[in-house]
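Hi support team,

I've been running sequence recovery on a batch of backbones for a student project. Most finish fine, but this one hangs at about 90% for roughly twenty minutes before it completes. I'm not sure whether the input is malformed or the queue is just slow. I've pasted the structure tokens below so you can try to reproduce it. Let me know if you need the job ID as well.

Thanks,
M.K.
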């Protein structure tokens, strides 16, 4: 319980999946938490669509695994193919990982967030304040004070620590003067999420179509949902690609039948990592600390791993069992793991995002024989063609180390 001088032990800013998981894991350890979120309801449309078996274990720890499973399907095989359909490389579906869960799951993010919010509503140690926006902070050796604004006007919260889980633009990161290391991968993509109606025909595998005319992703997005991602070409604008006619032309060759578009948005896929994960009593987690291209499905996973690493350390520090210096190990431990995930994702992106026909033909000529001959090596409990691994990991990302 916090000292009477404090409003809470930990203030969590941002209540997406990473912030909600952080608050829940802290509360389970008896840490008092105030969690603020600028929006008043869960964002109703999907964003992340994949998590892996380690994250399912954390959901099991929080007691929401049955609810999460209702909105998830085990990940199918993941195939990279040429425009003509030739296989470049594939990741087979592993239906049972070391944890006992499937290696990965495709899921519906709003349903997951509601399950996490429901858990927070049962925790007496957590006070959730929706509609409140973080504005500024001040800290000293003993506390951090956040200035917030919401339905009741300006207010302050005094806490022992603050965790910024407030997304890619992160006002918390800006407040501590945080900077990002850039991997030099920055590509605009159109994301189209659909609900699959009866009689629809959607692929039974997750696909990367490495077509130089327009690299395209097609993946499951939880039960009854599918996602397409289309790389924007030079000269295309956000306004143009979001139009109904443009999207209809892109979906037409897939002959998918009855689907209903739920969401359309343009995102820039890039790799970024915070130079510093901690500034005194303020720590960053999730997209506030790192941003990963989606090609390996590790963005949200990395954020929830942040939460798991940070929660037990804050608990021990607040209980006086370990010195505050242990919090320095948070970034030291998480950054290499995150960088590895970004390296891998950026590498996959460099295989996919090849708009030059000559370069794509050279890639295909090297990778197709390797895939057909089964030249595979293990990497991070998955398998990838050896020639593709050279393409993926041969060029270290700018600013990675």
């Amino acid at each position: 319980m916090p000292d009477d001088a404090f409003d809470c032990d930990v203030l969590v800013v941002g209540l997406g999946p990473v912030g909600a998981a952080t608050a829940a894991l802290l509360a389970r350890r008896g840490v008092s938490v105030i969690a603020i979120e600028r929006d008043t309801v869960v964002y109703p449309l999907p964003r992340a669509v994949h998590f892996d078996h380690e994250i399912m274990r954390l959901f099991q720890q929080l007691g929401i695994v049955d609810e999460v499973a209702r909105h998830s399907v085990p990940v199918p095989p993941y195939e990279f193919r040429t425009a003509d359909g030739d296989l470049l490389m594939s990741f087979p579906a592993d239906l049972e990982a070391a944890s006992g869960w499937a290696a990965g799951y495709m899921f519906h993010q709003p349903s997951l967030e509601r399950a996490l919010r429901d858990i927070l509503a049962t925790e007496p140690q957590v006070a959730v304040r929706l509609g409140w926006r973080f504005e500024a902070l001040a800290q000293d050796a003993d506390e951090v004070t956040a200035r917030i604004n919401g339905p009741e006007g300006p207010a302050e919260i005094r806490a022992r620590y603050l965790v910024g889980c407030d997304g890619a633009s992160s006002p918390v990161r800006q407040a501590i003067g945080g900077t990002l290391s850039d991997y030099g991968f920055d590509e605009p993509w159109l994301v189209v999420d659909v609900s699959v109606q009866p009689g629809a025909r959607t692929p039974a595998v997750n696909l990367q179509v490495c077509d130089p005319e327009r690299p395209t992703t097609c993946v499951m997005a939880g039960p009854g949902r599918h996602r397409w991602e289309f790389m924007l070409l030079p000269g295309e604008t956000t306004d143009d690609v979001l139009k109904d006619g443009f999207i209809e032309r892109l979906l037409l060759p897939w002959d998918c039948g009855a689907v209903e578009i739920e969401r359309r948005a343009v995102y820039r896929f890039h790799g970024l990592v915070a130079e510093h994960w901690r500034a005194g009593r303020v720590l960053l987690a999730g997209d506030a600390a790192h941003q990963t291209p989606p090609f390996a499905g590790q963005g949200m996973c990395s954020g929830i791993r942040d939460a798991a690493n940070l929660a037990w350390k804050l608990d021990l520090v607040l209980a006086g069992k370990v010195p505050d210096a242990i919090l320095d190990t948070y970034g030291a431990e998480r950054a290499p793991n995150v960088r590895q995930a970004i390296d891998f994702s950026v590498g996959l992106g460099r295989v996919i995002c090849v708009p030059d026909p000559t370069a794509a033909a050279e890639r295909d000529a090297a990778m197709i024989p390797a895939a057909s001959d089964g030249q595979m090596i293990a990497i991070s409990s998955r398998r990838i063609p050896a020639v593709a691994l050279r393409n993926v990991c041969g060029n270290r990302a700018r600013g990675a180390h």
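--
Follow-up from support: It reproduced on our side and the slowdown came from queue contention, not your input. Confidence is low (pLDDT under 50) at residues 376-401. No action needed from you.
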